[in-house]
Structure formats: C-alpha cells, structure tokens
Amino acid sequence: MYVAVKGGERAILNSYRMLDDYRRGDREVPELSLDQIREQMPLAVSRVMAEGSLYDPQLASLALKQAAGDVIEAVFLLRAYRTTLSRYGYTQPIDTGAMRLQRRISSTFKDVPGGQILGPTYDYTQRLLDFTLEAQREADALPAGDDALDSSMPRVTDLLAHDELIDAEPVPEGDPEPFDLTRQPLDFPASRAARLQNLARADEGFLLSMGYSTQRGYGNTHPFAAEIRYGALEVEMHIEELGFTVTVGEIDITECQMVSQFAGNAAEGPKFTRGYGLTFGYGERKAMSMALVDRALKAKDLGERADSPANDHEFVLYHSDNVEASGFVQHLKLPHYVDFQANLELLRRLRADRRAPQDAINDLMDEAVSS
C-alpha cells in the first residue's frame, strides 16, 4: 500500500530547523565567518560569482555558508538574489590588455613580451595531502615585491592577428546592442554573444566534460592555450549627467584564449581560429573549458563537420545551466503520487491482459487432459 506522507507545514518548518542545525554542526567548533570563507576559499567564491552572474565576494561567501558548501545551491541563492536588484546602467567594455596581472602564461610561445608569470597555481604541486595544515600553521607571508610587472603585455592573439594568422573578430557593423541573456529568452540559431553569455555562467563540470570530449575525438579541433591571464581590472561607467567616464570598482577576472588550426575553405585560406573564455575571479579550469566549447560551437559557422555533442548548439546551451538542470532533476523529489498510481494501475492491467490468453490456454489443456 502507498500512503501519502503526512505532516504538511509543521514538518517543513521542522525541516528548516534541522537544516540550520546540520549546517551549524558541532557547537564546540567556532562558527565559520564570511571573512574566512571569502579570504580562505577564494576559488569556491569565484565559481559561485561566475555561475551566479553576480560579482560580489561577500554575498557569494554568504551563499556558500547558507548552502553548507553546496556550490550549486549557493549559485541558485545568488542568482535568485540577483533578480531582485535594479539595473542602473551599463559599464564600458573592459580591456583585458590593461589587466593588473597576477598570472599570465602561454603554451604557444616560450618567450612572450612581458614574460611568463606563474603566479598562484596548483600546476606544479604534488597532489599530496599537506597534513601540516591540520595543525593550522600560519604560512609565511610573501614579501612585498620590488619589481613591478610590465603594465603593457600584449595578448598573444594580438601578435598573431598582426601577421593575419588568426581569424579577425571585428565589432559588427553599426555596433548593435549585444544580446542580454538575463532579459531575453535563448533562441536558435544563437548569436556568438548569446553563446558566450550562456557559457560564462554555465556549470563548470558540464563545460569541462564537453571540452574534454573535443580533445578525445568528439570534435575536430586541436587546441593550444595561446594565453591564460588572471588579475584585476578596473570597471568604468559613463555617467551621462557628468559627461565623462568614472571608475566604479575593480574586479578579478580570468581570461583564456585557445587557438586551433583551420584548413580554410573556398572563401578564406588556412589560419588559426580562436575560442574564448572569461570568468569572474580566479577560475582557470572554467575559462579553459569555456574556450574549448566556444570553439567547438563555431564549427558549423566555419563549414566544418559538426556531428559531436560539443558542436550541437541546442544540446550544449540548453543543458549547461546548473540551476535549471538541478531544479529539473530535484523536482523528482516532489510528490508524484497520482502519476505513479496511474502508472502502477496501468502496469497491473497490462500484466493481467498479458496473462489472460495464457490462462485460457492452460484451462483448455487441463480440460483436454481430464477428458
């Protein structure tokens, strides 16, 4: 027998209290502060800001604390809060060439103007647990550097563009207002602006899988990481009442530009093509995955074979949003008693109908044997 769960509102309120207790944990352990999350879990904070489409480290830290460390739930919380905010205007396009860099590497040229800057990275660490962290030892602070980084570090793709070795990406004629995914529904065929906006807040794990698939043969690109940059950048807004542009803040961003070979076609010769990734905070894996998928989605535009999952615009763009995906999966936990009972009754009827002819045959055979 299937009986509906009883309890209603009272059970739900008790569930809230149990969740608060579960999130808080042992009261003997000091409560985690937002400052601790923001300063000591910057990679998680960066991911929540990127996929939540809101640059605010403090609110992202709050979302992570409220979600008990569940990144997707924290993204959901931050994105829901974002929808309540008023939009006052639009900032000027950022120039990543003017970034105050903390990290800048290229796997295409050993010697690039400004040099390779390793910065903070796990790339060269041995993936071994550091048990000294258990003792809460305080790492030695980095001494202040005397040598300032070169403020002019041209992008590698700009060097390739100078020699016309890579596809140009000019501003469209008339400089039309870009697509806004937060205010306009996604439609197909999706423009490059729409695709990049979708990928920018897409689930990192999904993009990683899609990008990985292109490297394993489910795609026809052979990428190189032309450049990966991480650093701080000023954000400016033009104030019409004042008649000039003012700086409204500074954000940390990660940018990745991948280059892939293109054999050319009847209209243009062989060259490199690019895939682009940009994300809030420090998120190299996300930016690299985004760049791989961006290039894969350009296959049809370039006249290439486009029969792999990462080449399919609808498949990638419709399934990359973790909030939508999580909601659709988790809705299975809601009551489906009526639907299930209908299926159960149908199954029983089908099984009964299937048994009826066999039962009739058995009866005839019994009669024949007895006679």
What do you see in this structure?
The chain is α+β, with helices and mostly antiparallel strands and 371 residues long. Among the domains are: 12-84, no CATH class; 100-120 and 153-168 and 184-323, no CATH class. Helices cover 40% and strands 14% of the residues. It has 12 helices and 4 strands; from the N terminus they run αααααβαααβββαααα. It has a 4-stranded antiparallel beta sheet. A hairpin with an 8-residue loop joins β3 (244-262) and β4 (271-280). α3 (42-52) packs across α5. The longest helix has 34 residues, at 337-370. The relative contact order is 0.12. The model has no long low-confidence stretch (mean pLDDT 86).
